[in-house]
TrEMBL record:
Family annotation (Pfam families): PTR2 (PF00854)
CC per GO annotation: apical plasma membrane; phagocytic vesicle membrane; plasma membrane
Name the UniProt record assigns to this protein: Solute carrier family 15 member 2
Subunit comment: Interacts (via extracellular domain region) with trypsin.
Residues annotated as transmembrane: 67-86, 92-111, 123-143, 149-173, 194-214, 226-251, 307-325, 355-376, 621-641, 653-675, 681-703
Organism from which the protein derives: Gallus gallus
Listed CDD domains: MFS_SLC15A2
Membrane topology annotation: Multi-pass membrane protein
Gene Ontology BP, a term: dipeptide import across plasma membrane
Signal peptide region: none
Keywords: Cell membrane, Cytoplasmic vesicle, Glycoprotein, Immunity, Innate immunity, Membrane, Peptide transport, Phosphoprotein, Protein transport, Symport, Transmembrane, Transmembrane helix, Transport
Length: 735
């Protein structure tokens, strides 16, 4: 959720900059009025302006921290699949469990800052935890360090510490930046949050483009360099911490003053407990269930909590939007690995597509605010916040509908899903003449297989058990030969037919059962020469291939044109030209002859290359990014407008928790209901449309309120001075 923390903070301060104390981003209580704490000396200014020099350190810190977080997260799903060899469902579940934890832990950071350490020390201590988590995560990605169990443990510990660090400082950094401004410099403070927001999106935009390059284009330990892809974000987090500490002497620091979120929770808990305690007594009913807290809490606090709970109730359907939105880093990235990423001048890494979201957000915000919304207003259409949010949901649902269509097209080049008692087989005829193949009375091949004919597709072979010995009959130039091979269910085979020592022979070899991961190409070699060979391609040494139709294992290579390979034989070294090895394809290359200083080969494409271009993901990114602008920014502004000043941080806590719950929903679906990917996309689309209808109905009956009406009423009554709002929120009144 790129930049939501900054957008929320900007909305908050822009609405309250002239009349309230600063409050932290999620659930911190209001900072006390000036008379309640010691005011430090003024911070030096930037170039003679009213901007404190200290904000430069905070902005740079935020840029580095967001680069660190989003850069690490961009490659996380592919790390689980390629490095741990987990399946897609488990990788998706762990990714979203981590994302959910990142949005649960802000509550911990807020409580630490407000009730114990203050914002500055909380940022320092949790940033150290953050750095340690990154370092452990990076070390865990070094292949030579222990076995897979060690890697998994290190990675999970690292991710837990990262989640605690990034979530813990989330409610503190932006508000701490606002603390640096003097009360009269409201316009400068507002502009600071614009710069703060840009730093977040700049860090996200750059990191989601750069770290996939570090992962895929740089090789270490003979494979993708995940250690470097995690190490660079770790270094940026170290830099973030160093920069923040460097500005220590310039900061204005406010002491902890108690947490309003805890006070609200206590009030709600007391009301419920008191209501249950008196349910059997003959006590007059009260107008609202929160009125049962009046024995211990002030009417002002109870009235404000009532307003907050109304908005929180409206939040209940919102997690479904985030369940779809955050799959850009999981399911959509996995979808991109099965697509053609060649854009002509640049080959995009599948996890680089995530950079489109922060880029589009930066483009859409001014377009919507300065163009679309005013145009809709000119058309006399009342585009209320509820309608904007519902429209955002619809756009996100449409994005997943498009993702489902793209997934169906992708599956056309994928291998069929095998069922029990079924296998796949193809025939590679390397002889000089056509061969008719019959397998145990199963007439799979109606026509003779031509010499060096690339099969269009595999044939389905039906067995009578988990494995079966089958009789293969080959008819060639009027003669018939029989061979017996044992075939296992859910396996893929190639029957190689060739001539050896003047007679026809065959060999049954096992093929890949699925496309190579991450858009790589798979290639193996069959040596049709009468001498052993050693093959080198792209500086990679293949296993020697034995003479007389020996078969090598598969090797995974990057998509590229390979025209300068080497074939070393007993008689010399020859040039090996394989041509294009394309995204997601599997090839069998047969060495047929050596002449003129070059190796003559025949190449069979066993698994079709990815033929759906990655550009087809652009419409779904456009839709979901537009949906985010309408849903997220509008939702934050609306929720803030519907809550009293002292409770806005509580609503921010509720808002972030909807993100956490949304990621938890994806985790549950990925593990509890495994299904075809296109069907899962359709399921999420239907669920979001259904939730959108429910939300629209709830919004229709929602009556907007002005929090200032409540405040004015209280001011006319016995309420003390409005300047000290903290005392009204936290004071316990004995009735």
């Amino acid at each position: 959720m790129v930049g939501d923390e900054a957008r929320g903070e900007m909305n908050t301060f822009q609405r309250n900059e002239s009349k309230e104390s600063l409050f932290t981003f999620i659930s911190t209580g209001d900072d006390p009025p000036k008379g309640d704490f010691h005011v430090q000396k003024k911070s030096p200014k930037l170039c003679g302006s009213n901007y404190p020099l200290s904000i430069a350190f905070i902005v740079v810190n935020e840029f580095c921290e967001r680069f660190s977080y989003y850069g690490m997260r961009a490659v996380l799903t592919l790390y689980f699949i390629s490095f741990f060899h987990w399946d897609e469902n488990l990788s998706t579940a762990v990714y979203h469990a981590f994302s959910a934890l990142c949005y649960f832990t802000p509550v911990i950071g807020a409580i630490m800052a407000d009730s114990w350490l203050g914002k500055y020390k909380t940022i320092i201590y949790l940033s150290i935890v953050y750095v340690v988590g990154h370092l452990i995560k990076s070390v865990g990605a070094i292949p030579s360090l222990g076995n897979q169990a060690v890697h998994v443990v290190l990675s999970m510990v690292g991710l837990f510490l990262i989640a605690l660090g990034t979530g813990g400082i989330k409610p503190c950094v932006s508000a701490f930046g606002g603390d640096q401004f003097e009360e009269e410099h409201t316009s400068e403070r507002s502009k600071f949050f614009s710069v703060f927001y840009l730093s977040i999106n700049a860090g996200s935009l750059i990191s989601t483009f750069v770290t996939p390059v570090l992962r895929g284009d740089v090789k270490c330990f003979g494979e993708d360099c995940y250690a470097l892809a995690f190490g660079v974000p770790a270094a940026l987090m170290v830099l973030a911490l160093v920069v923040f500490i460097a500005g220590s002497g310039l900061y204005r620091k406010t002491p902890p003053q108690g947490n309003v979120l805890l006070e609200v929770c206590k009030c709600i808990g007391f009301a419920i407990k008191n209501r249950l305690k008196n349910r059997s007594r003959q006590i007059p009913k009260r107008d609202h269930w929160l009125d049962w807290a009046s024995e211990q809490y002030s009417k002002q606090l109870i009235a404000e909590v009532k307003m907050v709970t109304r908005v929180l109730f409206l939040f209940l359907p919102l997690p479904m939007f985030w369940a779809l939105f955050d799959q850009q880093g999981s399911r959509w990235t996995l979808q991109a690995t099965k697509m053609n990423a060649d854009f002509g001048i640049y080959v995009l890494q599948p996890d680089q597509m995530q950079f489109l979201n922060p880029l589009l957000i930066l483009v859409f915000i001014p377009i919507f605010d300065l163009g679309l919304y005013p145009l809709i207003s000119m058309c006399k259409f009342n585009f209320t916040p509820i309608r904007k949010m519902a429209t955002g949901m619809i756009l996100a649902g449409m994005a997943f509908g498009l993702a489902a269509i793209v997934e169906v097209k992708i599956n056309e080049t994928d291998m069929p899903q095998l069922v029990p008692k079924e296998s796949l087989i193809q025939v590679l005829n390397l002889a000089k003449n056509p061969v008719q193949v019959t397998i145990q009375d199963q007439n799979l091949f109606q026509q003779p297989v031509e010499a060096f004919q690339n099969p269009d597709e595999y044939s389905h072979l039906i067995l009578n058990g988990e494995q079966q010995s089958l009789r293969f009959i080959l008819q060639h130039q009027g003669s018939s030969l029989a061979f017996n091979y044992t075939v296992k269910e859910k396996s893929v085979y190639s029957l190689i037919v060739f001539e050896a020592e003047g007679s026809l022979s065959s060999r049954l070899i096992t093929d890949l059962e699925a496309k190579p991961e991450n858009g790589l190409a798979a290639v193996r070699f069959i040596n049709g020469l009468s001498q052993d060979v050693n093959l080198t391609i792209d500086s990679k040494q293949f296993t020697p291939v034995q003479r007389n139709y020996g078969v090598s294992g598969y090797s995974l290579v990057e998509r590229d044109t390979y025209d300068n390979g080497k074939c070393i034989t007993e008689t010399g070294e020859f040039t090996l030209d394989l041509g294009l090895l394309d995204f997601g394809a599997s090839y069998t290359v047969v060495i047929t002859n050596v002449s003129g200083g070059a190796v003559q080969t025949w190449k069979s494409e066993d698994i079709k290359a990815n033929n759906v271009h990655m550009a087809w993901q652009l419409p779904q990114y456009l839709l979901i990014s537009a949906g985010e602008v309408m849903f997220s920014i509008t939702g934050l502004a609306f929720s803030y407008s519907q809550s009293p000043a002292s409770m806005k941080s509580v609503l921010q806590a509720g808002w972030l928790l909807t993100v956490a719950v949304g990621n938890t929903l994806v985790l549950v679906v990925a593990q509890a209901a495994p299904m075809a990917q296109w069907a899962e996309f359709v399921l999420f689309t239907v669920l979001l449309f259904a939730v959108c209808i429910i939300f629209s109905i709830m919004g229709y009956f929602y009556v907007s309120v002005d929090p200032e009406d409540l405040e004015e009423k209280e001011e006319k009554r016995e309420t003390p001075s409005r300047g000290n709002m903290i005392s009204l929120v936290t004071q316990k009144t004995k009735l």
